[in-house]
Amino acid sequence: MKPCMVGDVDLRFCWFEVREIALIGPELVYEAIEKVWLIRERLRTAQSRQKSYADMRRRDLEFEVNDWVYLKISPMKGVMRFGKKGKLSPRYVGPNQILKHIGKVAYELDLPNGLAPVHPVFHVSMLKKCIGDPLSIISLEILEVDESLSYEEILVDILDRQFKRLRNKEIASVKVLWRNHLVDGATWEA
Fold this sequence. Notes:
The structure is a single chain. This protein is 23% helix and 28% strand. It is of the alpha+beta class. The chain folds into 3 domains: 5-53; 68-137, no CATH class; 141-189, no CATH class. The strands form 3 sheets. A 5-stranded antiparallel beta sheet has the order 6-5-4-3-7, with no helix packed on it. A 3-stranded antiparallel beta sheet has the order 8-9-10, with no helix packed on it. Strand 8 and strand 9 (170-178) form a beta hairpin. The radius of gyration is 33 Å and the shape is elongated. The protein starts with a strand and ends with a strand. The relative contact order is 0.08.
């Protein structure tokens, strides 16, 4: 396609037809065309600047199959309630395990039965990486937490014994493994 030029101005980017130029006056048309061209250049510059600012803050998220992630639920507020309402409602649920990578930016999650009505495929922007070992997370029902948010520790096993000698007496202590704790969480008790 051959550009429609009047002087050094490309008329493809103008509002005016060639026959209107004769009616309005060439000087006024050229001035309007130059202003439109200047506005477009400044818009391109502003868009480029905004894109560079956005790209600096953007980070590409990628997860592997069997990674653990939290699911952002704030967009689904109107559809389904997760516990409390308003400011105290949770922002993320999980952790959930990734079952499959679908396309470039979608993942299929292993959702619990409580989220059965929700489709299991989510965009990467709705996921947050789970830091730590999700298998060591214990639910409140298993711990039997009461109204005062406390629970009773139950002794499972005594792993080790030791005696500390002070000036004139000995103090016996035992290394105790508690229920719902790993061996690393065992404590020395008198």
